[in-house]
Amino acid sequence: MASITDCVVEGLKYPFNDIKKLLGCGVLFALISAISVFMSMKSFEIFRTTVHLVENSTQSLSQMPFSQLPTGDIYLVVALGIISFIISLFILGYQYDIVKFSIEKKAELPGFSDILGMFVKGIKYFLVVVAYNIIPSIVLICGVVLVGDSSALLIISMIAAVLFIIAYFLLVMALNNMVAHDSLKKAFDFNEIIANISNLGWGKYIGIIIFTIIVYMIIMVAVSFILSLITGVFIATISNQALAVSFFVAIIEGLFVDSYGAIFYNRVCGSIYMESIK
């Protein structure tokens, strides 16, 4: 049985097995990053315009006709949000394939030939993530909406946090189980999910996940620090080009960093499943 370090180290090396496919995945992340920057800019413009309209009107925001608002920008932000969500589904579908290749012990990275298949797998991945986080989310929302007392809200928030943590650890194996059997139902086969975790050992299972998250965070923080330095240099040397710099950094981060982190993480997740069924 492989050690925690072995699983993580193999995951760190895996994205470099095919740089072209790594960059192919990076293109999807880069698109989302670029769209997010543009959406943030447009959202700020909408907010600024709306505040200006309210300040110069006798009507409140709720009373103001929608036609008086910057509807063109609002529709654009909504459309970009939908496009970003669709791209995210393709990314989740690719992550599904990464887990599948890890379980099947394939050294190569998945390809992009089955676009429709990626989309369908992404929907399955998304539905499982949502399903496992419904209960903690409901608890948190109810706490915020229904509880006025701050001490009670703190307790409910803590309960919700614990539920999110429990859901997350179950979710990792649930996704693995779904991918291994290529069946959405298997993501909710709790007897099999618990049995797989118990077979590996709860301590080792949780340890691998926590260690993987720590390594992932170290990579993200280190690269983000480097990118922030690069951003500072660009802003200092290129005046009045903050937006262009933001787009450049977002694309670089999506193209190389986010794609690497996603492939690394999902590769380790697939390895966890393989260890649990030995």
Shape: globular
Tally of DSSP helical segments? 8
Number of strands: 0
Radius of gyration: 22 Å
Q: How far is it from the N-terminal to the C-terminal residue, by CA?
A: 8 Å
Order of helices and strands: HHHHHHHH
Can you give the mean pLDDT?
88
Query: What kind of sheet is the major sheet?
Result: none
Helix percentage range: over 70%
Strand fraction equals under 5%
Give the low-pLDDT segments. Answer: none
| Count of domain modules | 1
Would you tell me the structural class of the helices and strands? mainly alpha
Could you describe the 3D structure shown?
The chain starts with a helix and ends with a helix. Helix 3 (71-103) crosses helix 5 and helix 5 (150-181) packs across helix 8. The mean pLDDT is 88. It contains 8 helices and no strands. The protein has one domain. It has 278 residues and is an all-alpha fold. It has helices spanning 4-13, 19-55, 71-103, 115-146, 150-181, 190-200, 202-237, 242-276.
